[in-house]
Design brief:
The complex is a heterodimer of chains A (105) and B (162).
Chain A (H helix, E strand, L loop, with lengths): L1 H7 L3 H24 L7 H17 L2 H15 L6 H22 L1
Helix pairs in contact in A: 1-2, 2-3, 2-5, 3-4, 4-5
Chain B lengths: L6 E4 L3 H13 L5 E4 L2 H7 L7 E4 L11 H11 L4 E6 L4 H9 L4 E4 L4 H49 L1
Parallel strand pairs in B: 1-2, 1-3, 3-4, 4-5
The chains are: A mainly alpha (105), B alpha/beta (162).
Chain lengths: 105, 162
């Protein structure tokens, strides 16, 4: 959240604006990730992980970013992630979204 | 200090592009355009485009072209346009390919990435300022040369007329 804090420079409305921007992408993509089927080709999952990992990084969730980057790389190299790995990512993203929503209150 | 370098951000990542744009504006780049796909950016490009382009590799969320294809089209249409590759792909292959095709820099998206983009743009800005100063001093040299020639011709005519 460092970059967002710095850019919003103490302006709470500006900070909320940035948080909403990120939530607009994170929320629907989390739904897509939850609905993804690990038994099918995993390119759509890789694309979502790729899309969200930079945003998660900008928000400052380093651990979630590392997990997503690792899973993306694994799929890119021809591997598959299983349902429990996908669930772990979804759980971390859900927590992140809840924390962001909390900041909007 | 406001820097007179126009910047185009081409990235399908909407929130990060917005944040990067604000970051650059805050750091003196007053003219920053955003494009979320390669096609709309290429439509806006003209032959003498002086913008510096910060270009993502994976534009699959926006259009059909990837960053390397956009880079190729930019270099074909406007060779002097500076392109900074800005990618989530920590891939040596993509980095080599982009630099081989004329990119000025390759930055992997990371915690420090926004600052690295700014540093890279600062270098482009410095190069543009140097080129502008060089053009100015060339113009001044020409004007001075013409002035001297006119003076010599005037003096010659004066003596020829006596």
């Amino acid at each position: 959240m460092e970059i967002i804090d710095r850019l919003s420079a103490g302006d709470p409305e500006k900070k909320k604006y940035y948080i909403r921007l990120f939530l607009d992408t994170l929320e629907p993509e989390l739904d897509n990730l939850k609905a993804a089927n690990v038994a099918l080709p995993q390119e759509p999952i890789r694309a979502i992980l790729h899309k969200l990992k930079s945003q998660v990084q900008t928000i400052g969730a380093a651990e979630t970013h590392a997990l997503m980057a690792q899973q993306e790389q694994h799929i890119k190299e021809g591997g598959q992630i299983d349902q429990s790995q996908l669930d772990e990512t979804c759980a971390k993203l859900s927590t992140l979204i809840e924390n962001l929503q909390e900041l909007l209150k | 200090m406001s820097k007179h370098l126009k910047v185009a951000l081409v990235d399908d990542d909407i929130p990060n592009t917005e944040v990067l744009r604000d970051f650059l504006i805050r750091n003196g780049y007053s003219h920053v355009d955003k494009y979320h796909d390669g096609e709309s950016f290429l439509e806006s490009l003209d032959r003498f485009d002086e913008r510096a382009v910060v270009l993502d590799f994976d534009l699959s969320g926006g259009g059909d072209l990837n960053g390397l294809e956009v880079l190729e089209a930019v270099k074909e249409r406007s060779p002097s346009t500076h392109v900074i590759f800005f990618s989530g792909q920590d891939s040596l292959e993509v980095a080599v390919e982009s630099l081989k095709n004329g990119a000025d820099d390759y930055i992997v998206k990371s915690n420090a990435a926004f600052a690295l983009v700014k540093t890279s743009l600062d270098k482009v800005y410095d190069i543009q300022v140097l080129k502008l100063n060089e053009r100015r001093s060339q113009r001044i040299s020409w004007i001075m040369a013409i002035g001297w020639m006119a003076t010599i011709a005037g003096v010659a005519l004066f003596f020829a007329g006596r």
